[in-house]
Amino acid sequence: MITEQIQLCDGDIVCLCGNEPYLNGFSTCLDNGTVVEPDQHGEWGGTLYICERCHRIIDQYTGIVAGVATDVIVAANNLWWAR
Ligand SMILES: [Zn+2]
Hints:
By secondary structure, the protein is of the alpha+beta class. Helices cover 14% and strands 25% of the residues. The chain has one domain (7-82). It has one helix at 71-82; strands at residues 7-9, 12-14, 26-28, 48-51, 56-59, 65-68. A four-stranded antiparallel β-sheet has the order 3-4-5-6, with no helix packed on it. The chain has a two-stranded antiparallel sheet with strand order 1-2. The mean pLDDT is 91.
């Protein structure tokens, strides 16, 4: 698998799909892409964001794409976002 690298512009993520924070945006997530509250002391590890357009899972510090959320995870996230 080829490792993808996201550009970081002044700390802002610009995804390979063209998504940026002011467009579809990004959500804090677990390493499988499950969206969680951005709580440093909760489930979130403080590192990963999921792109809300293409569902790539992105390390906010290195810009490395850790993976892509599965359809099952994305469907669960859609329910989360609808809350
Ligand atoms: Zn994306």
